[in-house]
Amino acid sequence: MQNYLEHLLADLGGDDPWPRALADGSRVTVHGEGLIAIEPVEPAFDLFISSGIHGNETAPIELAAHLLQDVLEGRLRAGARLLFGFGNPAAIRSNARYHDDDLNRLFGKPAEQTGDGPAARRARQLEAAAVAFFAAAGERWKLHYDLHTAIRGSKIEQFAIYPFPHEAGFDAGEIGRLAACGISAVLLQSKPSPTFSYFTRRHCGAHGFTLELGKARPFGHNAEVKLDLLEAELRRLIAGERLDHAGRAGDATLFRVAREVIKHSDAFVLNLDDAVENFTELAQGYVLAEDGEQRFVVEEQGARIVFPNAKVKNGLRAGLVVVPTDGKG
Q1: Residue 202 neighbours by CB under 8 Å, 6+ apart
Q2: Is 212 known to be catalytic?
Q3: Of residues 212, 281, 293, 299, which has the active-site annotation?
Q4: 3-class DSSP state for residue 118?
Q5: CA dist 98 to 56, 68, 89, Å?
Q6: Which H helix or E strand runs over 64?
Q7: Which DSSP state fits 178?
Q8: 87-101 residue pLDDT tens
């Protein structure tokens, strides 16, 4: 059988290389480019693994493709109902973060905000696939891991974003599961966001998370990205084994998002060197950014910067200021 990632990169289209059913009776369905589902006869729960929302974040793409191929070729038997999503195939093929727009800033937004470009249309396609997949799950447990790597290096190499859970509250068991995956820190968000994991959390009833797994590198150069723990947990989940990791919740350092740094105009200046890593500490009183007459001064004690990026479009987030938390406040 042709390797799924090679097929996607070659832009061959169609679903002819993929079996309609596996030897164990699981049904295989291609729901569009980069979207393939495996449905066992009696699934234990429902698991969505997405990667490649940013096309140059290759380590997660390689991992997801490897797991998918093992399922398709019978080396890993699916006990969970699965959806694999390779988010931005065009950007993956050109090793670009994105083309016309940042896909992970378009989810859950109305058309008048996103326009109708290729990225906006792909966001709608991914949303529809996620909604349909999780709707068919009924009352079963639902999990979505959206796998990424970061533009910059990080003082905490592997961390996760826990989307704002609204009235549900943050789940210690899922924080413990992230720790079991090798995630050292979890950022607890305090408001909605236009990311894929927030969309599945809010609109699909899933436990949705964004996982940042190291620094982005080209295909074939990811030996330094250590994903052994994550792969082991994903293999257990794919097989239908849902372990209770609540006892490990304390293994992950928790941060809360104190403020977003928003770029409002072309005059925006971020007063950080390009080499500054995620989770670099910021001194109180430091002028972090300037935008015309507006100044962004660090007020929080113990503040750190995450995702600093002055090159975003006007109106978008140019960084997050995060502070340590116990998760209770």
Answers
A1: 108, 163, 166, 192
A2: yes
A3: 212
A4: helix
A5: 8, 24, 10
A6: helix 58-72
A7: H
A8: 999 999 999 999 999
